[in-house]
Amino acid sequence: MPQEIRLNAFDMACVGHIQHGMWTHPRDTSAQYNSLAHWLDLARLLERGLFDGLFLADVLGIYDVLDGSPDAALRGAVQVPLLDPAMIVPAMAAVTSQLGFGITANLSYEAPYLFARRMSTLDHLTQGRIGWNIVTGYLDSAARAMGLDRQMRHDDRYDMAEEYMEVVYRLWEESWAEDAVRRDTASGHFTDPARVRRIRHEGKQYRLDAHHLCEPSPQRTPVLYQAGASARGQVFAARHAECVFLNGGPAADVAKQVAGLRALAAPRDIRVFVGATLVLGRTDAEAEEKLAEYRRHSSVEGALAHAAASLGIDFGRYGMDEPIGAGLGNAIQSNVSAMRRATGQDFTKRNLIHQFILGSRQKPMVGSVERIARQLIAYAEETGVDGFNLSRTVFPECLVEVVEQLVPALQERGAYKRDYAPGTYREKLFGHARLLAPHPAAAARQ
Predict the structure, then answer these.
(1) For position 329, what pLDDT does the model report?
(2) In which residue ranges of the chain is pLDDT below 50?
């Protein structure tokens, strides 16, 4: 019996997310991203397909590394314009009852006191279905937007994140005891003051003297996601993350990453998801025809603008066949490492562009529903990943096909659930509502 595969939809509150240029396809409706109906329909669709979650990426700043300008990103709608993902979650939660929601929030530019309240609010309003993707940012444009000259160094951002996590854990877990709220109408006492603690923190980055403003939410601490794949990022993920996102790649390489992460996190259990892009058809030939159709709308310029920002390299400075030197800079180091593996240590703009099948560096899986079902099952078994983050191509048809065709094919093979498990997001993923020892959040709890 194959393992149960878990699926997340990987999206962003924008027009162009990963596969750049797809918004120009006549059947694509991504440009309706600023419509509430767009997100409500998506949430209903994903819950019908028994998706574990909708994972919403986010970024602060604009992609202005290519040619030292934001023009390419603006022309191609490369993650701009972009909405705040936290604002759309409560509406989607109101039309669903089981779907989880993971939102990306950059801790580098947000006071932990305010952020802790926002996440507790979302956990209350979703009845325990919220998760947080912990990021520290990678764009200098974001730092400038926040009044700084540039972002902190890569490893320093993780040092800051460690202290940030300590503060929010104490707010979520320590400030209010489980029995602090009495709701005693006879006495007129809603909360027992003796059961609410003031949190004091004096650290290198943060100072705090406050009570958390929210009573304990269903999960207290949201389900914690993390996508850092650098050496420093893996150490952070092993200490804090419950769900880890990987870019994907050859099964043998991913299997090593998964085994390493699990060893670092032990004895804690973690879920590992790998990014995937699917192009499905009733037959292999139909899928290939669809790929060719989609490729006519892919944007090389958009893909270069995105890659330049995430790799920290201005490709506009190089000719098509000029070797590009890329050290581990201050952007996303795991992306640089992945690019090196794919193109060689001395790569060129031409061989990078050659990877842009659908306007991104993520190579799609193309084939009949039956073929893709077999491939996903085999990949999960070979690598040890728990599931896949499915990025969109032409929206919404790419996800409608997954829900109506791929999910039943996986179910027929015993590799996909036929109903949701009860409880909160964390209970569905791990079987318990609150974080348990040895996770550091558990140590902060009253």
Answers:
(1) 47
(2) 327-334
Secondary structure class of 163 (helix, strand, coil): helix
Phi/psi at 158 (5° precision): -70, -35
Question: What's the pLDDT at 330?
Answer: 45
Secondary-structure breakdown of the chain: helix, strand, coil percentages, each rounded to the nearest 5: 45, 15, 40
Exposed e or buried b per residue across 315-326, where buried means at least 16 C-beta atoms within 10 angstroms of its C-beta: beebeeeeebeb
Under 8 Å CB-to-CB from 79, ≥6 apart: which residues?
Answer: 12, 14, 16, 17, 59, 63, 73, 306
pLDDT of residue 332: 45
Model pLDDT, residue 348: 86
Contact (Cβ atoms closer than 8 angstroms) between residue 285 and residue 9: no
* pLDDT value of position 134: 96
**Residue 156, pLDDT score:** 84
Render the burial of 379-410: b for 16+ CB within 10 Å, e for the rest: bbeebbbbbbbbbbbbbbbbbebbbebbbebb
CATH 3.20.20.30 fits 6-444, yes or no: yes
- 8 Å CB contact between 16 and 79: yes
Q: 270: exposed, middle or buried (C-beta count within 10 Å: 0-12, 13-18, 19+)?
A: buried
| Residue 363 near residue 357, CB atoms below 8 Å | yes
Nearest Cα residue to 296 out of 34, 21, 69, 48? 21
**pLDDT value at residue 344:** 54
User: Where exactly are the structural domains of the chain?
Assistant: 6-444
d(CA 76, CA 16): 8
Q: What is the pLDDT of residue 196?
A: 98
Q: Residues 175-210: pLDDT tens digits?
A: 999 999 999 999 999 999 999 999 999 999 999 999
Closest CA to 137 of 305, 20, 310, 15: 310
Q: Environment class of residue 263 by beta-carbon count within 10 Å: exposed (0-12), middle (13-18) or buried (19+)?
A: exposed
CB 387 within 8 A of CB 416: no
DSSP code for 315:
G
Give the whole-angstrom CA distance, residue 4 versus residue 85.
29
| pLDDT at residue 349 in the model | 87
Q: Take residue 379 and report the two structure tokens written for it.
A: 């990949």
Contacts of 47-50 with CB under 8 Å at 24 or more apart are 47/96, 47/97, 47/98, 47/99, 48/403, 49/7, 49/399, 49/402, 49/403, 49/407, 50/7, 50/407, 50/416, 50/417, 50/418, 50/419, 50/420
Chain mean position to CA 242: 12
pTM recorded for the entire structure: 0.93
Confirm if 142 and 60 have CB atoms less than 8 A apart: yes
